[in-house]
Amino acid sequence: MGEDTDATPTLNHRGFLPDHNYVTEADIISTVEFNHTGELLATGDKGGRVVIFQREPESKTEPFSQGEYNVYSTFQSHEPEFDYLKSLEIEEKINKIRWLPQQNAAHFLLSTNDKTIKLWKVSERDKRPEGYNLKDEEGRIKDVSTVTSLQVPVLMPMDLMVEVSPRRVFANAHTYHVNSISVNSDYETYMSADDLRINLWHLDITDRSFNIVDIKPANMEDLTEVITAAEFHPHHCNLFVYSSSKGTLRLCDMREAALCDKHSKLFEEPEDPSARSFFSEIISSVSDVKFSHSGRYLLTRDYLTAKVWDLNMESKPLETYQVHDYLRSKLCSLYENDCIFDKFECAWNGSDSVIMTGAYNNFFRMFDRNTKRDVTLEASRESSKPRAVLKPRRVCAAGGKRRKDDISVDSLDFTKKILHTAWHPNENIIAIAATNNLYIFQDKLNSEMH
Amino acid sequence: MEVNAEARRILAVSISKLYASRTQRGGLRLHRSLLLSLVMRSARDIYHSSRESEGPTPEEPMETSSGAEDEQQQAGLPEPQPALVSSEKLPEEPDSAEEECETTEDKENLSPTRQSRKRRGKASAAPDFLPSKRARLEPGEERYAAPLSSCRAGAGDSLTALSLNRGDWIPLRAEELTYIGQSQDKGITGAMVRAVRST
C-alpha cells in the first residue's frame, strides 16, 4: 500500500499507570464509531461511559495540528443493573454505538449494553440570554419596585458547553444479550439484534418493537446457531444482513414477510474437510459483518480470516484474507486461555478499497483489495510519538527465517488485542482501540481516499 | 493415542470453562456456551471413535432408565462397566483449571446401595482425564454413573441445557455442574461428570 501513517499523540490514557501497567477494567474500550461526517468519534467502555471526540478544524497557521481529535464530551450512558427475576447482573459495558445522520444542529447517537438501547442527544450551547427584567444576573428575583425600565434580553456568547441528554430509552425487548444495533437508511427505524432475535424499532417509539427475526428453536436443546451481528443495507431500507455462529450470512428482505425467518440469500462457504479440527466451529463463527459503503459487498470477520462477499454470489466469498494464520496451529492453547472466543471487528475505508481488522500484540492489519498488498502495524506508545511514522511489523512463524524486528509467534502478547477499529468515512484516518487506549492515525501522504 | 489424549484434555478444559461461566458477570453467554458445547461434542466424538478404533472394548449401552438392574449387573460384569473407561491409568494432571470444578464432594453417592433413578446412556463416564482428587473407595464399593438425562430448566428463556444428545454421556446443564472423580477398582479408573439439578 505504500502509505506512511502518522501518529497523533495517544489520547485518553485513563487508568493507565506506566509504572505498573495496570489497567482499570472499567476503562477498557468496547466500541469505537465515527459519525457520518467523521467530525465526531465516539467510544464506549466497559464502565458504561461514552467519550466523544471532535476533530479540530484545520487551521492555516498550524498545518500540523490540524485535524486532531480532542475530547468533546463524556457521559455515563449505562449503569449496572440487576434483573431480580433471573438473579442476573446486567453489565453496563457499552456493546455498540451508532450515530444517527445529522438532521439539525444537534447530534444523536444510539448506545447499547446487553439489554437496553438509549438514544442520546448531544447539543452545544454557546450563547445564553442576558438582561432579564425580573431576574438579576445570578437568577434572583428582583424587587419589582426597583424595575424602572424594560429591556429585551439579548443572547450573549458564553463558553461552549456540550450538553448530553437521554431522549429515548428502549428497554425490555431482549431476553438475550444485544450484540448489534444498526440505523436504517430511512432514518426513522433501527434494529437491535441479540443472540436469537432481531427487533425493529421506530426511533420515536420506545414501548414497542417488532420482532423481525427469531431463530430460537422450540426446544432449546436443539439450538445449533446464534446471531452474532446484524446490519442494515446502507441504501435499501428493506434489506439487512445478519451473521451466525456457524459462519453463514443471511440477507433478508423486510418486504417479503413480517417475520424474516426465511432469508432471501444465504451466504455460506463450504467447509474444507481437511481443515477440520476440534475448533472448526469456533473459528468459523462470524464476529462482525459490515456492508461496504457502496452496498455491493459484505465484509465479515471470523477468528482467523476476513472475507469480502459479493451480494450477488452466495456460494463463496469473493476474497479471503488471512489475518493471522500462524495461529492455526495454536488453537488449542488459544482455547485454553479463552482467546479463541475474542470477537474482532472489521472496517472498510471510505472508498471500499481497503479493509482493516485487529489482531493480537496490539497489531492491526490492512488489506488493499486492489493491489492485494497488506500491512501489519502496531498501536503502541513507543511507536506512536507525534508525527512518527508507523513501521510495518512482521510475525514470523516459529522456526521460520527471522529478520531483525520480526516478532515470533510465541512472543506475541495475547492480552493486547485490538478488537475495535474504525475508519473515517471520507479520509484516511483510523481509530484503534487498544485495551484502554485510543490511537488515532492519519495517513498524511494520502489523506484523500483513492 | 495422541488424539485421544488431546480430546480428553479438551473435554476437561471445556467442562471447567462451562462451570466457570456460571459465575461470570452479566449472566451466561449463550454464544459462548454454545461454542463450548460444540467443542465438547466434537472432542467426545473423536474420543469415542478413536477408542473404538483402538480395539473392541464393548461398552454396554445402557439405554434404559432402570437404575436398579444396572447396579446389580455391575458386580457381575467382567467387562469394564459402561460407567468406567478402559484400563488406562489416570494421568496426574496438575491442571489448576480443572480443580475449579471440584467444588462439592459427592456425598450423595457414597452409599453403594443408592438406586439411581437417572437414565444411563452409552459410555456414561467422562474418561479418565479428570484429576484424581476423590474419596478413596472401600474395596468392592463402586461409584455410580452420572445421571444422563438432558436437564432442562423450567424457565424456557434462560440458557439451560446444551446437552449432547445421541449418547448423552456428558449432560451439560449450564446452571450447575459438578463432577465426581474416578473410581479406582481393580486398576480400572474412570471419571464421570454429573449434572446436578439446581434446587
UniProtKB/TrEMBL annotation, chain A:
Keywords: Repeat, WD repeat. Coiled coil: none annotated. One of its GO terms (cellular component) is protein phosphatase type 2A complex. The keyword Repeat applies. It comes from Xyrichtys novacula (Pearly razorfish). PANTHER family: PROTEIN PHOSPHATASE PP2A REGULATORY SUBUNIT B (PTHR11871). This is Serine/threonine-protein phosphatase 2A 55 kDa regulatory subunit B. GO terms for molecular function: protein phosphatase regulator activity. Belongs to the phosphatase 2A regulatory subunit B family. The keyword Oxidoreductase does not apply. The lineage of its organism: Eukaryota, Metazoa, Chordata, Craniata, Vertebrata. It comes from the Eukaryota. PP2A consists of a common heterodimeric core enzyme, composed of a 36 kDa catalytic subunit (subunit C) and a 65 kDa constant regulatory subunit (PR65 or subunit A), that associates with a variety of regulatory subunits.
Automatic annotation (TrEMBL), chain B:
Residues 47-140 are annotated as: Disordered. It holds the Pfam family IER. Residues 93-103 have a biased composition (Acidic residues). InterPro entries: IER (IPR008653). Belongs to the IER family. This is Immediate early response 2b.
